[in-house]
């Protein structure tokens, strides 16, 4: 059964990459990507703006959401969880365009407004995954650590966070991938990015602009997703990997 599943997964991957390669060959033959190779300097500038918006907002969200997740999972502050999660949830319930408009009203037109909007949009997935990861740590494991004489702070750093790191990184990965697509809307508040070509293509009915902006956004999302999946595997404690493999066996 495992061999069948592996073969099926391999066939799906081959078909997927074949379809992607065929799309790029077709696109280049039709001149769909001509904006990239005709204006490489502008492309790199727009890509740099897009990446700056994504990672600046994501980094700020990590600095706020992860400590908040740790804070609300401490027994003394557990009652604050519902309030903090509800406030963070506002960033997801409000439409992204509305969040951008509100950020523009606070900071004006420019990159700062886009970063603020995507920061608000990133908080909830990182916060929820941090809480879920810390809550998933086995109480018996923490009791054993206390029995060994570890303080609460040492248990947090040496037991809880290493066991929760997969869930936390998954939340960061989700937030960044969502933001890569949403950042295209930053063009509407004068923040640049690849949304410039996407909306230019829509306005001019020019597929070369549209695809030259949309495809790099898609590839960037795939690259970030793969990068953070790799980080999950690297940062997962070896003991957890061995335990999972033993349970699967």
From TrEMBL:
Keywords: Membrane, Transmembrane, Transmembrane helix, Transport. CDD domains: TM_PBP2 (cd06261). It is found in: Cell membrane; Membrane. The chain crosses the membrane at residues 12-33, 53-77, 97-124, 184-202, 208-228. The keyword Transport applies. GO terms for biological process: glycine betaine transport; transmembrane transport. Residues 47-228 form the ABC transmembrane type-1 domain. One of its GO terms (cellular component) is plasma membrane. InterPro entries: ABC_transp_perm/SBD, MetI-like, MetI-like_sf. SUPFAM superfamilies: MetI-like (SSF161098). It is a multi-pass membrane protein. Belongs to the binding-protein-dependent transport system permease family. This is Osmoprotectant transport system permease protein.
